[in-house]
Amino acid sequence: MTIRSNPLRDPRDRRLPRIAGPCGMVLFGVTGDLSRKKVMPAIYDLANRGLLPPGFSLVGYARRDWADEDFAQIVHDAVRQHARTEFREEVWKQLADGFRFVPGDFDDDVAFNELRRTIDQLDEERGTGGNLAFYFAIPPAFFGQVAGQLSEHGLTKPSDDSWRRVVVEKPFGHDLASARELNGILDGVFEPRSIFRIDHYLGKETVQNILAMRFANNLFEPIWNSNYVDHVQITMAEDIGIGGRAGYYDGIGAARDVIQNHLMQLMALVAMEEPISFAADQLRQEKLKVLKSVRLPERLDQHTARGQYAAGWAGGEKVPGFLQEDGISRSSHTETFAAVRLDIDTRRWAGVPFYLRTGKRLGRRVTEVAVVFKRAPHQPFGESSTEDLTQNALVIRVQPDEGMTIRFGAKVPGTAMEIRDVNMDFAYGSSFNESSPEAYERLILDVLLGDPPLFPQHEEVEESWRILDPVLAHWDKKGRPEQYPSGTWGPSGADKMIARDGRVWRRP
Amino acid sequence: MIELTETDAGAIATAFVRERKRAGSPAMGMVMTLVVVTDEDHAHESMAAAQTATLEHPARVLGVVRGDRRGHGIINAQVDIGEGWSGESAVIRLKGEVVPHAESVVLPLLLPDSPVVVWWPQGPPPDPAKDPIGALAQRRITDAAAATRARTTAILEQCRSYSRGNTDLAWTRVTPWRALLAAALDQFPVKVTGASVTGEKVSPSADLLVAWLNDRLKVDVSRSASGGPGITEVVLDSAEGPIRISRSDGKLATLEVPGRPPRRVALKRRAVPELMAEELRRLDEDDIYAAAARRLVRMRKK
Predict the structure, then answer these.
(1) 0.90 cut: is pTM over it?
(2) Does residue A82 have an active-site annotation?
(3) Which among A244, A274, A387, B141 is placed 20 to 30 Å from A106, CA to CA?
């Protein structure tokens, strides 16, 4: 006789970790960086924290002449090198029992049949219960082929009481048309709620931190509108160049790589109205409303900027310019810095511009949202007293050292009345960060638990492309991006762009 | 580190601020005060465990080291803000007549407006909530397995004196077992008809596990003794056959469910800092522990 609910579970029992139910994962693209540096270590870390179900199985699929043991060796090396938590033999044994490998091309029917057999066998031997996540750690160009094969071999349709899910990584297309095509391919094969789009820069932790800050407090909401906010700056800066990613980066550029997904999502979270609840659907609706109310400036030449990093010194290191990087054409027009002004046409945000910028080889690695407030309408202090006082600001630091800074004016000790900017800082704790799980651990666990993702669904992806496409088209007609010295905060065009509105970029 | 001899709570509080300023970060993001009540022999080890455990939650850690009660009262203290650690700590050594009034030293040093946790790494007081220092705290953590007297009944005593906010590390130790048992029943949802727990003869954790299973499953749970380490086997009986988790080495367990080949599962016994970290994660009342503690008392009455 079977029972409905598990008597050992109780919602009040918050010590018990949410262990994923019986399941397995099929990993496509076993040899890539993503798999070795992120996915495999995250799986080990989850197992080490006791969050994977007994019998969890991992199937690798790749064009390699490997046996199960060879695959296990690859995972072993990846875990040894990149796992966050300590390597423990007993955890490894538990995991390694469930490793399988299926060799084959993406168009190999025989191999996909073999994959099917392997999966059925795992159900039998390890009790994975027919629950499977397919992780596409492969270039998007192959998504269609692999999804098609899975569907053809009957792997995408779960039987009763089981699930099949798919995990894909950005980029989610390179413009509106390609995004729609990609969504079409996945939607045709998987249920929309079974498609997990991963945006690891915007880990769930960050999303939840922003939501908690905005909606769990009474302190910020009253001033979170155009009455008090002057403008918002959202920055994601990297100090590194494109490294070995020339093949991916050339032709994509900063706007597609970062603004379309990370920065627009951050903007939506900061600007959205309070959702009815924190259910994924409700959040999505509110984010979508923001994205739908976004208006581009009419003069794109005045209110956008782009650039390419030039050779120079960054942080004491001599670095090549973008056009000198291996694998980049000397005449490439791909931008490594992009900045745009967006306006949100709602009552809350009318007249409050959002400035989004991102770039490579900038001053330092930082992602932050700076909400800059209007000046006090009247200063009872003399002009000389407030010379050093700028605008109040609230800065949400996303990375590194996640936290929040509030900038406000305070009197300088002494006889004269002099007011100067001071900062009040909150960090989620330097040590806390070390032990907090990697974004991938949370993501993978969410996938296995079937937690509806806080990550973009296809409507949001398409909406952000709708916003960005005209900017990209405008830039396409404009020739080469402006050069900026490596290790600085971007091209002069970006400074001019914001100066036109009488504002300056914050130095993050 | 600042050494203070023949001092008082006010001087210790000033030393905290001075150390912070010296380190260049007067701002602090500490979220709780953790009071560690210990003796000289265990002071070092217990403070180290407390610091590791508070990595996740920057805290002011106050070590109260109780010495001999005879003679006039002396308070010596070492104040330290951690390097590579975001909290701050003071080891406060008490001697003489001040020893029974340790709470008067602790009270002025509690961080404003944030939770207080008291931990007795060794001998727990018979009724933690009535203990003068325990009464200052929202959360009181004992360790029945580290009791120095009446070891066989230590957990029973703690369960009897259970009060909102009490927990015991013996309970923390069974979390991985409970998680695995719950997961096993998720995968193999059967009606459990009986259960048994095998472990060391004196094992407060095994006793609590019995009480929990009895409370949740409403079936008889037998308890038998083995050489350990810790808990070595838990069996849930059902009409379809037993679900069995056995672990003989304290590290790797085997999970058996009817009709399936056995599977290996990592189930390592955890060290005290890890246990404490779990305890500090939530500071509200642990309802499930409360129920298990009540059940344990009722089972012993029979």
Answers:
(1) no
(2) no
(3) A244
